[in-house]
Structure formats: C-alpha cells, structure tokens
Write a structure and sequence with these properties.
The chain is α/β, with parallel strands linked by helices. The chain folds into 3 domains: 28-63, no CATH class; 74-296, 3-Layer(aba) Sandwich (Aspartate Aminotransferase, domain 2), CATH 3.40.640; 299-433, Aspartate Aminotransferase, domain 1, CATH 3.90.1150. The protein is built from 16 helices and 15 strands. It has helices spanning 28-38, 44-63, 74-87, 98-108, 129-133, 152-158, 179-188, 246-250, 286-296, 299-317, 346-349, 353-362, 378-382, 387-392, 395-404, 415-433; strands at residues 93-95, 116-120, 137-141, 163-166, 191-195, 203-204, 207-208, 215-219, 233-237, 270-271, 276-277, 323-324, 333-334, 340-344, 405-408. The chain is globular, with a radius of gyration of 25 Å. It starts with 27 loop residues before the first helix and ends with a helix. The structure holds pyridoxal-5'-phosphate (PLP).
C-alpha cells in the first residue's frame, strides 16, 4: 500500500508522524476473499480466473491508496443525497438497519412504559420490538381484507388517551391509506412512524411513501427489493424542528462529519417531543453505503420487473373465481411489489389456504410461512398478553391468516418457472374443487 497519511477526525495538520483513522487497512488478500464471497464458484476455470484476479489486485495494491475512512464518511453522505433526491426530502439518514431507524422515532416520541402504540396485526416483529422492549403497550389494529394493511377505521376505534404512536406498515410495498391516519394523529397529538421496510419507491396519491408520516424507515436487508450488503436502513423525518438532529440521533449525539478542532468535541442530548433523550450508535459503514448506492441506481428497473411478473401472474389467475390476485395498484397507489400476495376464496375453492399451501409444496412450489398475526408469537405471551382476547379484536387478520392468504415467490424467476408456478396454482385449485 502507499504511505499512510494523516486523515484522522481531528485536525492535526501535516505531520511527520501521522495518526490514521483506519487502524488496520484491508489488503489485496482480503479483497480477493470478498470477490470470492460475492461471486462464488468452483472448478478449473473459476480457480484460474481467481488466480489472475489475485495477481492483478496485488499489483493494484502497490499503486493505490486505501480509503481514509470506513465508517460515516463520503459514501454515506452520497447515498443520503441520492435518497433525498429520490424521495424528495432533505434529511435521509443511513443507519445499520430499518429497526434502528424505528428506534429514533420511538425515542423522539419519548415512549415510556404504559404508553400505547398501535401496530397492524400482520407485520414483521421488529415493527414493535423497541416499543415492547421499553414496556409500552402494543395495541393491534385489524387489517384491510384485500391489502392486509392497517385499517384506519379500526385504528380510530383503538385510540385511547394513552396512545402515543401509530405505526402503519406498507406491507409488501403496497401503500397504506395514510391520510386518514394522519388526521387521527393530528386530532389526538400522536406520532406516526411509517414502517416502510418494503416500500422504498412506492407512491401514495402522487407522494413518495415515507414522506407523509412524522417518521419513516426503509429496510435494505438482503431480502428486500434492494440491499446494502445484507443490512441497512434509511430513516427520514417530516418534523421540521427534528431534522437537524437526525444525524446526531444516529451516532451518540456527536457530529463527526467535520474535522474536529477542539479536543473536547460536543456531545448533546437530543430534544424529543416532550423531553430530551440519549442517542446510541446505529452508524453504518462506507461499504454498506457504497453497496446501496449501486443498487439504488437500479431501483426503478427492479420495481418495473417485479410489476411485470405480477401482471403476468394476475393475467393467469384472472379467470379463476377461487383466487384473488395481488392488487396491481392505480394512480393513487403505486406499490413496489415486494411480495406477491395471493388469496383463495375458500367457499369457491372447496378448502382453505392451509390445504392449498400443502398441495403447492407437494408440486415443488415454495410458499413462505409468513406473517402470522404478531400476537400469536410466544414473545407476546411471555410479556403478559392474552392471544385469544386480542384475536377477538382482529377478526379480519385471524380469518385471512388461517384461511385465505399466502405469498408466492416473485423475483429472480425465469419465465419457465413463472409459468410452472401459475400452472400449479391453477391445478391445485382444480384438484381442491374436485374434492381431491
Ligand atoms: C424487514 C422488515 C423490517 C426490519 O428491517 P431491518 O432492516 O431488518 O431492521 C421491519 N418491518 C418489516 C415489515 C419488515 O419486513
């Protein structure tokens, strides 16, 4: 490697003895391992190419300089700028993952034991993890029977004087009808956090999803539409007076984005809605940011490809009266098509979705054991919740999960695989109708 130079966060000036920011740099051998990890293979040809790459990377090592920073530096700023442009906001903040982004919003709301948080019955557990961990009471809203999203009418019924937050989830990337939720929030002085884990690039009434609630957090975990090398999240706020605290909330209340002059840099508490809170560390790496930048360039094409697959599957299922296909959306609801949600109509299919899924598995089509209503999870019982009592307050979620919906694979399939899957779905329904 070329000479190390002083690039520490403090302004040390030019020195004969430098102090670098990165303790141990990555070398040629490390980088080749990364290439081998991201592009796996075996056999003679593969080994030969890797050997050549190793030689070339070693040469590169001799004439190149390592990055001065691996955490919270120019790549992180760059992806945040790109996200700002894409979403039309001014405070995108890259964090370790989407769940970390939620925590910033929960802390802003000064969530305390006994406060109530309304979440949809069907979502991923991390929507509510922080709220549950601080002893807030989770209240489950029932869902819309077609989109599976939180039903604003049920939210209205479940608001009490203790409700501090509402957390709508754009499940599968299908936008929640958020305007009525914002009206309720305004009336009752409630903070709205959008769980936009599936919804980077979705639009609601012409607005980007994630720009209407007080906070929104997007996920770039490996299973989502785009990823930041496996983990990542972007959190945004629309609360004007909180925007300047987003970066401080991500990293211990200190701002290291500029070179520091004073030995005693400032660490501040963060002003929450009613009282200050303490920020911890959700800082992402430069590598996460770089990975996300590359994939973010492809987001529109990815959503288009997903939409094409959904359109095709819907055309195959249109004739079948026992199937309700994934909603394609309209000009007010533009989804990201993260999941393909298929529902069966049990009375017409002659059986429920459990039978349907079992038969589909037998024909070698994967269905994912996804999205049981959260109050079915043992963590809720352990925390003192009564599953049966809550189930009575979410009849739509209960019926959908037990009898009607599943998700089908959607992306990265060949036309032949899509064809086969559509054929098998129709074949299974035929068999069920005939009582087989
Ligand atoms: C994936 C997911 C999350 C969590 O995202 P992470 O980036 O893994 O923290 C939150 N909510 C929903 C609905 C998800 O599917």
């Amino acid at each position: 490697m070329a000479d190390k130079h002083t690039n520490y966060r403090y302004n040390t000036g030019a020195k004969r003895v430098p102090w670098v920011s990165v303790g141990e740099n990555y070398n040629a051998e490390d980088l080749v391992e990364v290439v081998k990890f991201l592009m796996q293979g075996e056999g003679k040809e593969y080994d030969e190419i890797i050997k050549n790459i190793s030689k070339e990377v070693e040469k590169l090592d001799e004439i190149s300089t390592p990055p001065g920073r691996l955490s919270l530096a120019s790549e992180v700023s760059a992806v945040e700028e790109e996200s700002n442009k894409f979403l039309g906001v001014d405070n995108s903040t890259l964090v370790t993952n989407c769940t970390a982004g939620f925590e910033i919003a929960y802390k802003y709301a000064n969530l305390k034991p006994g406060d109530e948080v309304i979440v949809p019955a069907i979502t991923f557990v991390s929507t509510m993890s922080y709220a549950l961990s601080v002893g807030a009471k989770i209240v489950f809203a029932d869902i819309d029977p077609i989109t599976l999203n939180m039903d604003p009418r049920d939210v209205a019924k479940k608001i009490t004087p203790k409700t501090k937050m509402i957390v709508p989830v754009h499940i599968g990337g299908y936008p929640v009808d958020i305007d009525p939720i914002m009206e309720l929030a305004k009336k009752h002085n409630i903070v709205v956090l959008e769980d936009a884990a599936h919804a980077f690039g979705a639009k609601y009434k012409g607005r980007m999803v994630g720009t209407t609630g007080h906070f929104a957090s997007f996920s770039f975990h490996e299973v989502k539409n785009i990823t930041a090398f496996g983990e990542g999240g972007i959190v945004t706020t629309s609360v004007p007076e909180f925007k300047e605290y987003m970066k401080l909330s991500r990293f211990v209340g200190a701002d290291f984005s500029k070179v520091i002059d004073k030995w005693c840099y400032d660490v501040v508490s963060i002003p929450g809605k009613t009282e200050p809170f303490v920020a911890v560390n959700y800082a992402p790496t430069e590598i996460q940011a770089l990975g996300l930048r590359m994939q973010m360039k492809r987001i529109k094409d990815i959503i288009a490809a997903r939409k094409a697959a959904v359109t095709y599957l819907n055309s195959r299922f249109a004739e079948c009266d026992a199937l309700i296909p994934q909603s394609i959306g309209n000009e007010d609801y533009e989804p990201t098509f993260h999941l393909y949600q298929l529902q069966i109509v049990p009375e017409k299919a002659g059986g429920d979705v459990q039978t349907f899924k079992k038969k589909l598995e037998e024909k070698s089509v994967t269905t994912i054991p996804h999205y049981a209503p959260l109050y079915h999870f043992s963590i809720m019982k352990d925390m003192g919740y009564d599953k049966d009592e809550i189930a009575k307050t979410c009849p739509v979620a209960e019926d959908l999960f037990a009898n009607k919906f599943t998700h089908l694979p959607l992306y990265g399939l060949s036309q032949e695989q899509l064809d086969y899957m559509a054929d098998m779905v129709l074949e299974v329904i035929d068999e069920m109708k005939q009582g087989k």
